[in-house]
Sequence to fold (483 residues):
Amino acid sequence: MRKLLLFYVATFTLIGCGKSNQGELVGVKQKKFYPQKPHGMVLIPGGSFIMGSSDEDVLAANDNSTQTVSLRSFWMDDTEITNAEYRQFVEWVKDSIIRTELAKAALSSGGYFSVSEFPTTDDEIDENPILAYLPKYDMGELQETEDEDKSGYQQFLEESFSDAVSNYYETEDAPDSLFHFSLPLNRDVDVVKDREEYPNAEYARVIEEIIYLPESEWFAGDPVFNTKFLKYRFASVNFEKAIQNPDSARSEYVHYQAPEIYPDTTVWIKDFKYSYNEPMHNDYFWHQAYASYPVVGINWYQARAFAHWRTKIRNDYLKSRKKRKSNSAKFRLPTEAEWEYAARGGIESATYPWGGPYLTDDRGCFMANFKPKRGNYVADEALYTVEANSFDPNDYGLYNMAGNVSEWTNSTYSKTTYDFLTSANPNYDNFEDKQKVVRGGSWKDVAYYLRVASRDYEYADSSRSYTGFRLVRNYLGTNKIQQ
Fold:
C-alpha cells in the first residue's frame, strides 16, 4: 500500500510539473546544452597569466610591459589556416557569384516580375536551360496553394521578391540586393564548367563575358576567372559606437563590407626585390603540393571575412539539421591577449611556446621555422613556409605559434596599449586605425619575433608572403578554468 501511494504521488508530481508551472518561477523550458569540440580546434582553458615580456627589451620598443591578465576559455585552431581550407572559402564565393549572375540572366531572359510566373515544368526549362538557375522556391507548393490559404510569410516572400525584381529592371544597383534579401540561390543545379557542355548561348555569354577575363588577358591559354569579382559581403557591429550613441539608428554602427577575398599571390614577388620567386607566385596557393601549408597573401579584412563565412556555413548546417544556431559561438580572430596566453601553453614566464630560452632541442634541431644563424634560412630545414602541423606543438596542442607565418589578431596596435587595458579579457579594437597586431614571427624573421611576448604590426590592408592567421571561437560557459 505504501509503494502504491508513493507511485501516485510521483505520478501526480510529474504531471503537475509537466503541464503547468503552478504559479512558480521555473524558468524557460529549453534543451540542455552540450558543448561540442569544433573540428580542428583545441580548448584553451581560461585562467590568468603575466602578459608582456620579463626579458630584456632588445629593441627598446617599450610596448609590452608586464601585467596580470585573466581570460575566459576559448577554442583555437591547432594550426594556421591552410591553403586547402582557404580555397574552400574561395570556391564557395566563386560558386555563389556564378549562380548569382546566372540567376540574374534568367530573370532578364524570362522577364519575370513575380514568383508565380516562374516556370514549373521541365519542358519550359528544357526550352531555355538557364531558367534552371532562378532563385530557389518550392514552386509546386506555390501553385497548389490558393492565395487565401498561403501563410503570412509565404505572401511576404512573394511580395518582397516581386518588388526586388521590379527594382532589378529599373536600376543597376538593385541586383546586388536582390539575392541578399529575397530568395536563396539555387544550389541544387550543377554549374557547367566545360565549354563543350554549356546548355545554351545565354549561359555561355554569362560565363565568357562576365565571369572570365577577356581573352586578351589570358597568359597560359586557359580561361581565367576574374578574381576582382570574388567579394564576400558581410556585416560587423561597432559595439563601442553603439554604446556611446544608444539612441542612434542601427545603420550608424552596423558596417557592411565586401572585401575581395582572393589571396594576393604577387606577394612572393613584391616582398622580395631582385629575387626569383615566380614558382611560389604561380603554384603556392593552388597546387596540391602546398595544400597543407599556411595560406599567405591575406590582409586583415580578408581574414575577418573568412571568419564570418566559417560561422555562416556552420550555422547553415545546424539550421538544415533543425538545430538551433548560436551567434555567440562565432569564429573570429583572436585578441592579442588570447594569442599570447595560448602561445605560452600554460607555462609561466615562457620565452618561446616550448617554454625554455633555447631555439634547439637536445639533438640540436631547431624547434621552429624562422631565419637563424645570420640569415641561413635552410638551417631549420625550410627555405619558405612548412606544413601547418610541422614541428612539435606546445602544451595546449597548438602548432607553429612561433615562426612559419606571423598571425593576424583582432587587436589594434599601440605602444601604450598595455597601460590602459583592463585586466579581464583585455582588447584594444579600433576599427578605424589600420595598424593591427601580428604575433608569432615568421619564416623570414629573426628569433626575437618568435618570443611569445614580442609585438609587431602590419597595416590592415596589407598582405604579405609571411603573414597568415588562425581563428578562435567562443567557449559557451565558464567552467573550463585552469588553476
